[in-house]
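Give me the 3D structure for DUF427 domain-containing protein.
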Amino acid sequence: MSKITIIPAEGTWIIRAGGAVLGESSRALELTEGDYPPVIYFPREDIGMAFLEATDHKTTCPHKGEASYFSIMSKSKTYENAVWSYEAPIDAVKEISGYLAFQVQDGVAIEQLP
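Predicted structure for DUF427 domain-containing protein (114 residues):
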């Protein structure tokens, strides 16, 4: 099993898509799994949910459980299934329940404020 660690992400983090800021949080979590790069998870209440639209897409991770997905609806583009959330993760990672993670891609950026 991949070792998963979850710690509070230091500082303040923002998520941008299509040039708009979708959210800013000083309560984000940093999840590290095995050799993968760390993933920043944002509390849902710190994200402009009006920009997100739930999709029917689901995936299952043996270490975290079932993920639900959202598309980002920006003015210029729809980023399909670019956001995921574990609504009922397995107990070992219960801290990320309801938090949102974003797939960084052209037009979608996660930044730590200086």
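The CA atoms of residues 2 and 14 lie 28 Å apart. Let me know if you want a second pass.
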